[in-house]
């Protein structure tokens, strides 16, 4: 992992980019060959990336609609998905 990989995570990352960076950080930390100070920096960046991923997923979840069916089982429209 290079120093540029440890740069602060921008909030405008898309989900896939944030997840990819988070996966690289996890792999680096799991190897256990990073000095403590660098590990703490990577952990903080990973926390920010996780929050970005969580926000993107929640936003996508809010946009999902459930297809409603009529009595004959045919699509009759949509309604908001019930989030539990």
UniProtKB/TrEMBL annotation:
It is found in: Cytoplasm. Its EC number is 3.1.11.6. Keywords: Cytoplasm, Exonuclease, Hydrolase, Nuclease. InterPro entries: Exonuc_VII_S. GO terms for molecular function: exodeoxyribonuclease VII activity. It catalyses: Exonucleolytic cleavage in either 5'- to 3'- or 3'- to 5'-direction to yield nucleoside 5'-phosphates. Signal peptide: none annotated. It comes from the Bacteria. It is an enzyme of class 3 (hydrolase). Bidirectionally degrades single-stranded DNA into large acid-insoluble oligonucleotides, which are then degraded further into small acid-soluble oligonucleotides. Heterooligomer composed of large and small subunits. Belongs to the XseB family. This is Exodeoxyribonuclease 7 small subunit. It comes from Pacificimonas pallii. The gene is xseB.
